[in-house]
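Dear V.,

Thank you for sending over the compound details. I've combined the ligand you provided, zinc ion, with the protein sequence from our construct and run the structure prediction for the complex. I'm sharing the raw inputs here so there's no ambiguity about protonation or stereochemistry in the SMILES, which I know was a concern on your side last time.
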Amino acid sequence: MLRRLRAFVNSLAEPWFPTLCLRCGVVGTSPCPECSEEFTPAHVVGETAHLDAVVALVVYDEVSRPFIADLKFRGKWATVQAFTPAMSFLLDECIGTERPGPVLTWAPTTPTRARQRGFDQAEVIARHVAHYSGRPVLKLLDRRPGEHQTGRSRSERSTGIHFDPRRPVYGAIVVFDDVVTTGSTLSAAAQALRFAGASAVVGVTLAATPDRPKR
Ligand SMILES: [Zn+2]
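Below is the predicted structure of the protein with zinc ion bound, written out as structure tokens.
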């Protein structure tokens, strides 16, 4: 009886729903350290309008895609948790280690999508990195629903992405997103942040599609 009780108490120390690596199924983190070695590092991404720099942690390929999908569509935070230390380090390399340093924010997903999923993956990434690295994080942007096309520039009409700043900002701002493909989302976010007063905008993403031109 005592032994069974002890086994039960010990089991409480273990998480009830352990995290399994999405790729190999090993218990611990997702990705596990071994699978993390399989990712292709991305770092500096080609030039994007309105941004001083865009950095991505990994290349968006067959290795990283399932992990990003796990986060984006199923709200599994394991991917973000596993990548947060590396993303914080990447950010330190990019903007320096000074604290508090620039404010972190994110390019919000469309309100409809955020409602459907119950979360905004870009916000989850920004908040995890801010918490881990001791940097300030603020919601600085609202995303317009996207149907309204009148009164926009040609580039805005072609992408249909527009953000409105929620308040005036000062100095440099770091804007997060999950994946950078064409850069149009980050670019629209940076444009709004500059309009609000940002002197510099740096984009940080978990992954970047490999066909972007590298600097
Ligand atoms: Zn693994």
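A first observation: The domain at 40-208 is CATH 3.40.50.2020 (Rossmann fold).

Warm regards,
I. M.
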